[in-house]
Amino acid sequence: MRGYFAFLRGAMLVGVVYRLGFLFTILGNIVYMIIAYFLWRSIYAGKEILNGLTFDQALLYIALGSTIFILLKTYTDWGMAEEIRSGTISVYLTKPIDYQLYNLFSTIGFASTSILTVTLPTIFMLFFVFRIPFVLGAGYLFFPVSLLLAFIINFNMDYAIGLSAFYTESIWGISTTKEIIVSVLSGALLPLQFFPAAVQQVLMVLPFQAMFFTPLMMVTKPDQNAGVFLQMLAVQALWAAVTYVASRLLYNQAIKVLRVAGG
Amino acid sequence: MTLIHIQGLSKHFKILNRHEGLKGAVRDLFSGDYRTVQAVDGISLDIEPGEIVGYIGPNGAGKSTTIKMMTGILKPSAGVLQVNGLVPYDNRIRQAMIMGVVFGQRTQLWWDLPVIESFKILKEIYKVDQKMFDEHLGMFHELVGLKALYSQQARTLSLGQRMLCDITASFLHNPQVVFLDEPTIGLDVSIKAKIRSLILELNRTRNTTIILTTHDLGDVEALCRRIIIIDKGKILYDGDIKKVNALFGAYRTLKLQIKDYSEATLAALQDRLTGTFGAGHGITIAQTEDCWTDVTIDQARTPLADVLAFIMTNFTVEDVRIVEISMENVVRKIYDGALK
Amino acid sequence: MLTLGEYIRLYFLIEAQYIKGQMQYRADFLISSVGMFFSSLATLSIFVVLFNSIPDLAGWSLMEMVFIYAFYMIAISPMQILFDAVWFLRYKIQSGEFVKYYFRPMNIMFYFMSERFDLKGLTQLAAGIALLAYSSIRLGLVWPVGKVLILILAVFSASLVLISIAVMAGSSAFWVVNSYPVLALAWKVREFAPYPITIFDGIFRFAFTFILPIGFIAFYPAQFFLRPAEISPLFYLAPLIGIGLFALTYKVWDLGVNSWTGTGS
Ligand SMILES: Nc1ncnc2c1ncn2[C@@H]1O[C@H](COP(=O)(O)OP(=O)(O)OP(=O)(O)O)[C@@H](O)[C@H]1O
Ligand SMILES: [Mg+2]
Q1: ipTM greater than 0.90, yes or no?
Q2: Which of B111, B331, B106, B116 is nearest to B232 (CA)?
Q3: N or C: which terminus of chain A carries fewer CB neighbours within 10 A?
């Protein structure tokens, strides 16, 4: 395990080198929040409540959603595809390390710099610049765990997408398609309450809602009882396990391509 | 008429002194803390049509920088530079028409296209007519047998094959001058030989001027009548290769691994060599890596065989190699007055 | 030196070869086209879902929003298809490979951009045209020849704005080497082009009209066809803004090309 933390640290150092990048990312996020503010203001058009969400809740949901989007966008799939395409992956296969864990820790390292440089400043801004009212509730306590689980589900999916590089020349198409599907169906762009009831029912049994909708609801509606939150976490944990097993199986399948066809 | 005229040409680069850490990076954004590198320092030379000039010197001497100025990529900091009577930097497109360039290991072929398609695109760019195009390719095929490679994508070629194709491409439009910046780097002996004969043949049949930089003195000996040696941006020697050739040819370095080596061994070796071969023996001794001792011998003064025999009988030598003189040593010899 | 006609001929020659090369990766092309198709439809599906809960957005109906969005999809296609190479500029600069573009007797921007041709962008173009046709039928718009010509001119101007934003962001690689964050920022901002500028007030409306002119990408042009009565006189400035912005971008690119001195060897 100690070894894997070295990967985490290494990725953090690389992250720091790209600090100029973070500056632009924050800038982009600010512009996004300004636009989102105006957009949602005209969506509400003076109405108190829409689909059970107040304007403040919706804005918090959307702004925080875009921040989590940045946090989850770790380019793991791109990095893996590059390693697979160039054959560097063989280097890892000759070492006594697990490729998935190695990637997970590098990804966490990369993301932890972005928590400090993007996520926290944004949350700070939401409450102090945009002055979104802070509702006290148990949801905030569960939020970090929920976020971690969302992160793991997202990682497992990225990992599976990265593995597809064994089969195609470029993963652009698969990666983009996945990103679009996730951003629409997970509620990252629009709270799931806005979808028609029948669609909502379908979305709730898919894994995508566990990546955005669940953690975001913990913060937008934090004043529910702990049982509700625990149930949400249980569903997330289940999806984390399912996606993990699926990506493992895929790895075992994909690695055969390498063994047969050569790097 | 002179093809390339250079007078007092200089180029310096301004480099920001970077600082470490986060604070340093912020400071660098506003800092005016520059250091200048004088890459080319007041060189003058003239090159006539049809010459093959070897432009050589150690790493960082300023060769590539000079070529980048001659090809119109870099703007000189000072001095006069004319190719065919025009200033390259101000007439990049017009100059590119009469030039061919091969730069190091970077290919200028279209990466994903079959080689022949790259050639066809170049044919359009340079407006080469079909008859000439066919003639050229026929000639290249005769010289190096490239045809088999034509249907392959550039990215699938080996380094040597790609270099051959790149050189072919650079001559396709029958340029007046071709710049070859390290065309033989990383290639094996047989490909090197092919490249050399290709260059010679093109120069002979078309009178193409060729400016060649290389670290392989073999290339220079095989191709050039004239060589220019540059170091730290200044020209050390410009003239007939014959004079320098003697220098390359005469010097050989014996690399020795002496048993139980110590500082004292070096001194002893020095003393006893002087004792045996007299004062003007032309032998220099240097310690390189941990266990190798370099003995450089001027064969004009002392035969290598004698020195080797002497050392073998008087010291316990575990391993020995004979190498030709390196570029760095040639430069050192010139500084030491070898060409005076 | 090459004439304009010769440049165009050369472009077709290079792209024909490039497409032939890309066709080896047929599966890849299919998946990418599907990806492109989905990504164009994502925003659209959000509109559709959103309009379940609201009657209009700042006074604009769903079909009108679809029209604006379709215009945007068409306008972004030239950038996507012809200028895709901007995303790779930073790699060429990092590795020093960019030096090769100086050696040919050609315009450097032409040479560089001609090296890629993004086929999958055609999917987006097709989807955009289909949506534009669909929404204008639903809205009962009529298209006399004069209006079609104005549409073409409007698409052209909007495309120039989009191309300029991308190329200018990409050109930052000449100075900062890693231009990805700058490009990503420009890319993100552009996503808001298909929303009505009228949702903003005060300084923000001014900013998105004049400073970061995303209003000219889709909203002002589309307004002309949807509600000619409300049209802002700014619409007539669009071609000027497009051409002016592109000229400025070309200057920045040229400055970058001239100031970039290549890596050491
Ligand atoms: N773009 C640049 N910015 C800063 N310094 C540079 C740049 N290009 C070259 N230099 C410096 O100028 C000097 C000469 O470099 P140049 O590439 O001309 O050497 P060279 O003779 O071609 O060496 P080599 O044999 O290693 O290729 C070097 O000290 C190099 O570091
Ligand atoms: Mg060089």
Answers
A1: no
A2: B331
A3: N
